[in-house]
Amino acid sequence: MTTKRVVTGNYAAAYGALLSRIQFSAAYPITPQTFIVEHLSEFVNDGILDAEFMRTESEHSAMSAVVAAEATGVRSFTATSSQGLALMHEVLFLPSALRLPVVMPVVNRTVAAPIGIWCEYNDTMPQRDTGWMQAYVEDNQEVLDMVIQAYRIAEHKDVLLPMMLSMDAFILSHTVEPVEFPNQDDVDDFLPPYKAEHAHLWPEDPMIIGSFTPPEYIQEVRYQTDQAMHAARDVIKEVTKEFGKKFGRDYGGLVEEYRMDDAEVALVSLGTVTSTARDVVDELREEGKKVGLVKLRYFRPYPYEEIRKVAEQVSAIGFYDRSISYGSGGPNYIEGRHALYGLDIPVMNFLAGLGGRDVTVPDIRLMYEKLLEAAKEGKAMKEIIWIGTRGVEP
Amino acid sequence: MINIKDLPDEELFTPGHTACPGCGVAQAVRNLMKVLGKNTVVYLPANCLLVFSATYPLDAFKVPYLHLLFENSGVAAAGIRRALRKLGKNDVNVVALAGDGGTADIGMQALSGAAERNEDIIYVMVDNEAYMNTGIQRSGSTPFGAWTTTTPVGKKIKGKMEHKKDVMKIMMAHEVPYAATVSPAFPADMLRKFEKVKNKHGFRFLQIYTTCPTGWRAPSEKTITLARMAVETGIFPLLEYEDGVLKVNYRPKGKYTVEEYLKAQGRFKHFTPEMMEEVKHWIEMKWRWIRTIEEGQKALEQEE
User: Where in chain A is the domain with CATH 3.40.50.920?
Assistant: First the structure.
């Protein structure tokens, strides 16, 4: 029997770890991730989670311990935000190259300066090249479901890469929503125990992990990690489908399309803004405007094929971003442009909600208006548009 | 108690590694591994030992080891220990082998955290008193006046202007179950301490004085002599802290003078008489503190 409970995103993340029967966790508290650590502590101290739990003195140490534990052969978990993720940066390169399938929710929060605690993607986006898979989620149900799926995908023999689950600060982490909790037997059936066959630190079967490696060998390691990231695309699609069959919630794979049939323009969104954008699409459709929405679920591996396929059906496409690569554009837009190379339609970038500013219905309506205008004209008057910025004409 | 004659012939840290002749680290690790035995997992941060013991695909360790980063030895070893516990492998020794820079400087935070949490690991600081792997740069553990490539002997400033950081004292301040300093010139004391850390539980710390002929500008055959001189001059006291009690394992008998110790190494060859006096003053301060603790303990024992 499944149960429905009204919980925060942070509780959903912690409970997802519990259902995934994690064996080890190390974590350090940071707003707005704190409740994940607190809930894990409660689960452990109440005896409902049978895991080793280390309360470390920093995020750098938390990730170090998690990688060491995973290398020893147990399913490991941590969670962080913002500055914590930045402090972990050095450690993030290890589990991907050493092929250790760690899972970590990251509650997206702005990175200083100026210091802020609200939602921005300038914590996760700069981790692009660390070799972690990166998923972005829309609601608390998806948080819970994705922790379980993340382990299935990460531990797949063709993948063996770590995954971070990006979830919006406060909008998800501290907001309660009804969430359906799968029962433990079904999760056990879907996610079997972790078997550390390829990497472990056991005296009965000595193995060296992470030895000093000369140029004669490192390039092959890079190639294999890259191949694993490519292979993850098919595994993600498979696992998403299987999860849908078993639990009744199919998230579509690398992207989820919304009202894209006969759409003239498309907006590629990520995170919770997607929910608001769904409403805007419904409104505009009622007004007779042919608009559609694509929810980007994975930033790594990036769904180049899917995005290109979408773009080939429309007359203009826009990419929403909640962070910026200074002097260039939003990271989603940069990847999207890469996917669309040679395709002759207007491509636009909408920057909104940076530093945690609300992204409202009028903001998203404006994005669609700009897209419809560009579709009509055959070109965008301005390609990168800052929405709702004081003193800046959008 | 283990006797040097009882050490097994089998090498768990094998010949073929690429350490410099006379390397104190290689010698200490070889003996430590003989005592710890096969049922051991090693964590290595970035240091000389990592490079000279195992450059892929070669490897001198016959036990599993993990290397991740430079500054996380305390916590990485703890992660291994906790995971092994989860797998029911409770009898495995988990040992971190870190250098003095990786311990006294960049690794201090993770070390302090692991000590405070009383993680069930053996943490070994192989102390060669500078960043030797990167080419002899000053660390917090470099002694006063020493020449290094970042404390050169210039026209205005000659060598390191600060004294050596006392990591043993820092570990005592953490009230860990066991902490000791070790000198390879005192093999019986060394092996006893190796055996002690093997058989105890909780956080265990060893600071081993490991001569670096390359970095100290000293002849490679003087490795053990220098280690003996450091203890005899009082520069490197042999101490043991267990269950809240400090013991002095060897009382310097004055077989060597401070001048002799300093003159035996090129890194101190620019020393003036004033600098020698400064070192002597530092030794006096160090021992005054040790004696204060000893006297206090004695007084308490008598009271009880």
Answer: 255-386
**A-side interface with B, Cβ within 8 Å?**
23-24, 26, 51-52, 54-58, 60-61, 64-74, 76, 90-91, 94, 200-203, 205-214, 217
Q: Does B48 touch chain A (CB under 8 A)?
A: no
Residue B188 CB neighbour total at 10 angstroms? 12
**What top-level class would CATH report for the domain A255-386?**
alpha beta
A144 vs A5, A105, B150, B262, CA distance in Å? 12, 10, 52, 64
pLDDT tens per residue, range B231-274: 999 999 999 999 999 999 999 998 999 999 999 999 999 999 99
Q: Which domain, by its residues, includes B195?
A: 4-303
Pick B86's closest partner by Cβ from A67, A74, A200: A74
Q: Is the bond leading into B45 cis (omega within 30 degrees of zero)?
A: no
**Count of domains for chain B:** 1
Instruction: From chain A, pick out residues whose CB is under 8 angstroms from the CB of B64.
Output: 200-203, 205-209
Chain B hits for A22, CB-CB cut-off 8 Å, are: none
Instruction: Specify whether the CB–CB gap between A36 and A10 falls below 8 A.
Output: yes
Confidence (pLDDT) at B1: 76
Mean pLDDT over residues A290-298, rounded? 98
Residues B63, A143: Cα–Cα separation, whole Å: 40
- Residue ranges of chain A that CATH labels 3.40.50.970: 3-247
Surface-to-core class of residue B296, CB atoms within 10 Å of its CB (0-12 exposed, 13-18 middle, 19+ buried): exposed
d(CA A16, CA A9): 10
Percent of chain B with pLDDT over 70: 100
Q: What is the CATH code of the structural domain delimited by A3-247?
A: 3.40.50.970
Tell me the two tokens of residue A141. Answer: 């149900």
Q: State the pLDDT at residue B147.
A: 98
Which of A21, A24, A57, A88 best probes binding to B when mutated, by most B CB atoms within 10 angstroms? A57
* DSSP track, A323-363: S-BTTTB-HHHHHHHHHTTT--S-EEEEE--GGG----HHH
CATH number at residue B185: 3.40.50.970
Angle formed by the axes of helices A59-72 and B108-116, nearest 10°:
70
pLDDT at B54 (0 to 100): 82
ipTM: 0.96
Residue B189 is predicted with a pLDDT of 97
* Structure tokens belonging to residue B162: 């600060």
pLDDT at B5: 86
Q: Do B67 and A56 touch (CB under 8 A)?
A: no
pLDDT at B2: 80
